[in-house]
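Comment thread on ticket #2218

A.B. wrote:
> Attaching the input chain for the structure job we discussed in standup.
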Amino acid sequence: MVNRISSSEAETILEKWPVARLATIDELDRPRQIPIVFVRNSSGLWSPIDGKPKRSHRLSRLEQIRLHPNVSLLLDHYEENWNRLWWLRIEAIASIVSLDDNLDLRKELEGLLQKKYSQYSQTETFLGTPTAIKLSISKYSTWVANRSEFKKALDIIAQK
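C.D. wrote:
> Ran it. Output below, let me know if you need it in another format.
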């Protein structure tokens, strides 16, 4: 496990890390990436269609997921000290879930999102019809440059 992140370490990152990059495939089979916020519950990872400013009401990522539900999610850390580099790449099946008729799940996700992101005290958790992207993890792979440096960083991440 010299250059890998353990399962428990990956769980900590998924619980605490604030941003990930969602990779999808568009209608012309070109890869596309977008930064997303996300939370985790017992059924998977969730990213809301929230009240942050959007370029358009019709979100490309939703169309891309409908066409190609196999996606990749990348969480990583970069800095000039390359001993502190790490990444966690997740392969998942994405689905678009309307939360209109599932009040319990909506409230659970709102609570998780508001706990993880203080910005939701001033931004709508869901925009329009409450909708979220659900990511069901198929597998993940990891890499870390230096285990001892990563352990120090993980302690800081875990305290957030």
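A.B. wrote:
> Thanks. Noting for the ticket: The domain at 7-155 is CATH 2.30.110.10 (Pnp Oxidase; Chain A).
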